[in-house]
Write the structure tokens for this entry.
Amino acid sequence: MRGRTNAGTVIVVDDDVHTLRALARTLSDGFEVATYESGEEAVTRILSGGVAAVVSDIAMPGMSGLELLRSIRNIDTDLPVLLITGLPSVESASKAIEYGVFRYLQKPFALDEVRGAVRQAAQLYRLARMKREALELEGRRPGASDRIGLEVTFRRAIESLWVAFQPIVSISERRVFGYEALMRSADPALPDPNSVLDAAERLGKLEDVGRLVRSRIARVAGDMSGDELLFLNLHPRDLLDPELADSDSVLARIAERVVLEITERASLAGLDDVQARVANLRRLGFRIAIDDLGAGYAGLTSFALLEPEIVKIDMSLTRGIGESTVRQKLVGSLSNLCREMNMTVVAEGVETSMERDTLCALGCDLLQGYAFAKPAWPIPDVRWP
Ligand code: G
Ligand code: MN
């Protein structure tokens, strides 16, 4: 063990003792390792807990790697499993994906590549557990809907759309790090962005809303004097809009300054080629942020798919953090872990000086919330402590 106290045990399963030993040696740099020559023995060990990740061969006598993966999914929905194969087959790959394999490693593999993958798997697994804890702290909010006269209401709401900007500040540097652009509707029937988006979704007009907001943001950015980053919220389905990926779009021209936020509240399931689309957005210069971390879906899919540069901690974790040791612990470990994974952390919804100071003490330097400025247009000034 080097430099890690609480990382858990990595389970390695292979009927080939040479591979087993080589993997154990590599992984013992950073992890405690337990080796097994059969899937059955590994399952018994996994049931007793404290496991950080599982690395397993696929082709083994007795229980195969795929069967092992399936048994693990009955025990733990998040525990990362990395499968090794000499002979890749489409069939086993698709089964592996169906059962939620973390990574598929093809022989011959570089040992340090395996170590890197296991380290990432173990970190994401810890993150998954913290997120489940966060969910338990907070109940989910039900969404309201109103179907009457939707088409008319929607058209009116679209006409009244405007964009507010809220600063994200760096406390240590006492400067504005960026602005989050927030869609606003002046229409009382669809008063908040979510109701506008719900209506747009039902009317098949999500793309229009996304494009409208993005063009407004690009226009405002053109008039801004500084070089602050601009954060904007994407609906997951915006990822499918070719206009977003168009290198000639108004937003693409300022892509280096733009952070695309994708909320954890919405699932990315059913969206084709998310990884390729996100990779393309990165090539254009955009950065990706996971929004509302700790508020929504507890799985790891969005992290694994998006590999965000920036993570925004949801305000349900910020709220009252000064008086809640549970939240302090959780936000402290979440932000440490994100930093370990080279992600920049922003804490949202900071309303009081107590929340601000507690977050600072926990190492969160980038803060956003009413304590500094409410979202507004024209761009509001920051109230510095
Ligand atoms: O999901 P997302 O994080 O993008 O939502 C941001 C929303 O939170 C915006 O609608 C914004 O008005 C609101 N908001 C921003 N700062 C604060 C705050 O300090 N307190 C509260 N209650 N809401 C905030
Ligand atoms: Mn946001």
Q: What stands out?
A: The chain has 13 helices and 13 strands. The radius of gyration is 23 Å. Residues 265 and 296 are 4 Å apart (CA to CA). Residues 180, 233, 261, 291 surround manganese (II) ion (ligand 2) (CB under 6 Å).
